[in-house]
Amino acid sequence: MRLSWFPIAQKIVWAIFLISLPVTSFPFFPGGVGGRTEVRPLSLYPLVILVILVTIPRLLSKPIPKTAFPLGAFGLAAIASTTIAFTQGIDPDIGITVSSRTFRMLVTLAIGIAFYITVAVTPSSKDEMRFSLRWLYGGFVMALLWGSIQISYILFYSPEYFDFIEHLQGFISVRGLFETRISGMTYEPNWFAEQISFLLMPWLFAAVLSNYTAFRWRLRWLTVEMLLLVWASVVLIYTYSRTGYVLWVVQLVLAFMFRPRKVTDKGKPWGMIAKRVLQVGVLVVAIGVIVFIAGSRNRYFSRLWNYWSDENAAGSYIQYIAVSQRIAYWETAYRIYDEYPWMGIGLGNYTFYFEEKLSDRPLFPTPELLLKFTPADGRNRVVVPKNMFVRILAETGLLGTAAFLAFLVGVLGCALYLFMTPHPEARYLGQAGLLSLVVFLGVAFSVDSFAVPNMWVLFGLVTASAQIFSRPSILSSEYENTD
């Protein structure tokens, strides 16, 4: 006899998993589970329960999503390259052993794969997908609310109030707050901006674009998703994240360009395109003005245009806006790949090769690089590429990179299938999937951790949606309802 509470328990744990996603640096983590790293997703706790309750039983009773095969191949390539590199006698000189670094990176990849597969197999119907979106939004309502509270100390700064909010932040994140930027429930402002832009906004932009809502309530064109989109956009401004701004603008432009045509536009394709290009141009100019006004209040962000008027500016423009160290990380990763092209150097070993492969350059114009080479008690000297693609290329070589790209192509196939399906809800999910892949190309230039759940959860939901709407019974029922 099947216990009646079992499906309810699954739903409760799944909801907890979704609402906990915005917390990515939870301070109360055991040391052996990631308590010494910056990335500590709170959702890892409910994920463990979901793996036992949902993932393993589903994988034993139903076919594995096809997109999991190239991801599994990537995992095997990563294990192989790491095993080979482990036998080559790497000399650690940053106070971290190769074995501990290797073990942590393999565990991190396993966690990421577990995130993806669990999300890909948990929602199994249209109702469950709507349920998932509602609870995902619920988690972001809390994150946006906390971000809105942080905005108040930027607009009306008070040391006592800031200290109080920062004390509360200590129960959510391992890092304190910035006095001039908001961090939400994450480690830093850039993480919060990328989380909003990547994990939340593709669903919201696609919903507004297609006039879809996962909720029963709506007031004509006004939906919960539209309200959330406006709220998230306002909160995003105060992160002062350059990447976040760019990703928001890209999604807005795509939403304008590819929104459904009006009846009066049919038969006038070139006129419609010219009209939308003009609208997008006006929109971008308006956004630029808003960004300039808002960004001028923040010294970090205003460096983008203050270089030519700042009398104390030294070095090149990319050094002034703090991009030169990123380029150095990427160049070094490519140098490593160039020497180990097929299998790479193994997960996590970039940091051990960094000093050797860094191009000959003076370090004083780039303080971040100088700090990494200066030993000091308590200083984190681990160096990462801060770019998903160059990290995979350097650490797993061409074999691992090819497998990972095949995984992305599989997710793209799921999104295109949904987008081309005549079912309105499937088309909405496909639009969100395509937007998410575009945003991922931008996010990948600043994030390289496999433990951050944003990518895995979003791609998992796209995969789950494709599996749901690939069933003939669902599509046929839609046709019957429209006859």
How would you describe the overall organization of this protein?
With 483 residues, this protein is mostly helical. The chain folds into two domains: 63-121 and 324-483, no CATH class; 133-322, no CATH class. The protein has 19 helices and no strands. Helix 16 (388-420) packs antiparallel against helix 17 (424-443). Residues 479-483 have low confidence and may be disordered.
Task: Give a short synopsis of this structure.
With 483 residues, the chain is an all-alpha fold. The chain has helices at 5-19, 44-61, 68-86, 98-121, 126-155, 159-169, 189-210, 224-237, 242-257, 269-295, 299-306, 317-320, 324-339, 350-357, 367-372, 388-420, 424-443, 453-468, 472-482. The longest helix has 33 residues, at 388-420.
Rg from Cα: 23 Å
Shape: globular
Query: Would you tell me the overall average pLDDT?
Result: 83
Number of helices: 19
Low-pLDDT residue intervals, each spanning 5 or more residues: 479-483
Can you tag this structure with a few keywords?
single chain, 483 residues, mainly alpha, 2 domains, 19 helices, 66% helix, disordered C terminus
Break the fold down into its secondary structure elements and pairings.
Elements lengths: L4 H15 L24 H18 L6 H19 L11 H24 L4 H30 L3 H11 L19 H22 L13 H14 L4 H16 L11 H27 L3 H8 L10 H4 L3 H16 L10 H8 L9 H6 L15 H33 L3 H20 L9 H16 L3 H11 L1
Helix pairs in contact: 1-2, 1-5, 2-4, 3-4, 3-16, 4-18, 5-8, 7-8, 7-9, 7-17, 9-10, 9-17, 13-14, 13-16, 16-17, 16-18, 17-18
